[in-house]
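2024-03-11 09:14:02 INFO queue: dequeued item Outer membrane lipoprotein carrier protein LolA, len=212
2024-03-11 09:14:02 INFO validating residues
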Amino acid sequence: MIRRFLVLIKLCAIVIVGLSTGQRALHAETVKPAPLDQNEYLHGTFELARYLDGFEKPLLSRGEFVISPPNGLIWKTTFPFPGITVLEDDGIFTITPNGDRNAMASGSETRQFVRMISSVLSGNWQTLQSQFNIAENTKKSNTWEAILTPKANGVVATQVNRIAASGDIFVKTVMIEKPSSDQDVITFDDQVVGMLPLPPEFAKLFTDGIPE
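2024-03-11 09:14:37 INFO prediction written
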């Protein structure tokens, strides 16, 4: 269960970070959002609907997220149960209500993932293209859709059949189709780009954050 959760968070991070933008014009030649600058962060809310084979209704969770290129990703669930997961250079951690940090993943695989996220944060799409075949489609003016299909024999291909992302100046919806026929649909809203430094309530969640 923990491994599946980590895979989901990693995939969300790859797609969100790879396609995140500030409130700026889309790239005219590709209608593709520009990546976050190093002095910016993105804050928004999410709803995750998990469709499991054999269940009539999806399992829902809601919360908020923060992406900061120099720091990493905060994934904070508020419904149905509170929880915080932080992805950063030192690893992947959960944070308890009293502030204790519990490591979920570390080591070479995690460092490789963090390096991949850093590359994407800097606007390097080559990292995504090494793992996915990417097809982009402009559906209407100032909107886009990207279909990511894992390349054969890759690690991602064992976990995912297809990822579909769509939006305008922000990623709005991500759908993840899995080999098991399960499906995750993540909807993002209330997205705002801010300038660093991070607000203290978010900064303190990172290893090098502001102490309480």
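2024-03-11 09:14:37 INFO annotate: Confidence is low (pLDDT under 50) at residues 21-31, 118-123.
2024-03-11 09:14:38 INFO item closed
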